[in-house]
Amino acid sequence: MTWVFDFIALVKRNYTLQHPPVAPKDDDALRIGTLGAARITPEALILPARSHPGVVVTAVAARNPARAREFAQKHGIPRVFDSYQELLDDPDIDAVYNPLPNGLHYEWTMKAITAWKHVLLEKPSCNTADETRRIFQYAEEKGVLVLEAFHYRWHPAVHRVREIVQSGELGAVKRLDGALTVPSGWFPRDDVRYDWTMGGGCMMDMGVYPLSFIRWLLDAEPISVISASAIPAHTSTLSAPLDRGTTALLSFPNDVTASLTCDSATPLPWEIMPKVEMKIECERGSVYILNFVQPTAYHYVTVHRQGKRPTTEKIYSSGPLSQKKFKGEDWWTTYRYQLEAFVDKIRGREPDYWMSAEDSIKQMEAVEMIYRKSGMGVRPASTYTL
Ligand SMILES: NC(=O)C1=CN([C@@H]2O[C@H](COP(=O)(O)OP(=O)(O)OC[C@H]3O[C@@H](n4cnc5c(N)ncnc54)[C@H](OP(=O)(O)O)[C@@H]3O)[C@@H](O)[C@H]2O)C=CC1
Ligand SMILES: O=C1OC[C@@H](O)[C@H](O)[C@H]1O
Known about the structure:
There is one protein chain. This protein is of the alpha/beta class. Helices cover 34% and strands 24% of the residues. The longest helix has 18 residues, at 357-374. It has 2 domains: 21-148, NAD(P)-binding Rossmann-like Domain (Rossmann fold), CATH 3.40.50.720; 152-318 and 330-374, Dihydrodipicolinate Reductase, domain 2. The strands form 2 sheets. Strands 8-9-10-7-11-12-13-14 form an 8-stranded mixed sheet, covered by helices on one side. Strands 3-2-1-4-5-6 form a 6-stranded parallel sheet, sandwiched between helices. The protein has 10 helices and 14 strands. β4, α5 and β5 (118-121) form a beta-alpha-beta unit. The site of ligand LJPVP2WV has 4 residues, from α8. Belongs to the Gfo/Idh/MocA family. InterPro entries: Gfo/Idh/MocA-like_OxRdtase_N, Gfo/Idh/MocA_domain, GFO_IDH_MocA-like_dom, NAD(P)-bd_dom_sf. Residues 31-148 form the Gfo/Idh/MocA-like oxidoreductase N-terminal domain. GO terms for molecular function: D-xylose 1-dehydrogenase (NADP+) activity; nucleotide binding.
């Protein structure tokens, strides 16, 4: 019978995450403007802001004014700007969400910082580690906040996995295997993910998730990339090499190895569903999590302890977290948790979790190491100068 209750909870949670309760807004709610009418914005910002009393999405700017108006109307955004710069220049906006193509992250985040705006910056933070370093340095100089939107990092389920791994109860970690793949047809062939000039490539778009999770689970950086191979995308050329997918094997301190796989178009019929998983093998057992990227929709964590029967946990806000209790509701998406932390930090409150500048910089250094090893080379640096 438990599965019936689980199924009802799953349906309820997935309905509520798409139709969150609307919170009455605080008088001093943070006013966020969003750059571009990007596909990810409703899920990553507009829905989460709905249930947050301390945030209002007050403005959108798009390259095409008609598109901006249509987007604003659809999502109840009161103000529309005909250019990104006009939005940044508006003194009634406190923070911006930057979900532009990767190749524009650097330029528009630097411009936003110049305009004294806090920035919620989509992953991957920039095309190169050097750009990421410069962004955080500049933000510090100007006294504004930049956060790379690695939303999964805020969900209690991934914290639980990290807690088990780092508690030492299973002994030392020996090996990790992470994957994020989607079947062919998931992205249109003209998607910006396949545009080299815009910082495209699957390692940039999807491989960054298992990479970031591995680094965080270990609290360590790769020593070297043992091997890396990339499948060229249909847009890949010699002068603009771009991966449809990448597989890499990394070496970490203490003899730990980790593999990651990402693919933006796994050929049918080998895969008809996305694959999103991480397995951590330790001396005396293992931990497996299904769907570490969007655990709110569905996930499970299975722990094999040597000599014992495997156990399975599902961890939402009310789950059996032995570490500190997170703020949140079962239906809070990773983006909702992330927004809570972003606002808390700006308002001087201690967030439940925070992803540091150092972490974002090290993450891009690791991405570069993998691209160099696979022969694809690092993504083109922005031509924007401050
Ligand atoms: N956190 C997450 O779960 C996810 C994060 N992302 C990240 O968000 C970013 C955007 O992804 P996604 O929403 O899928 O992308 P979209 O292509 O839907 O959106 C990108 C936006 O960038 C603007 N833009 C400006 N210049 C260009 C250009 N030259 N070519 C294309 N678009 C341009 C467009 O805005 P306009 O024309 O309206 O001005 C467009 O709406 C990426 O960095 C990606 O990695 C994506 C999906 C999930
Ligand atoms: O951030 C993301 O999350 C899930 C992926 O499928 C997507 O391509 C990416 O942009």
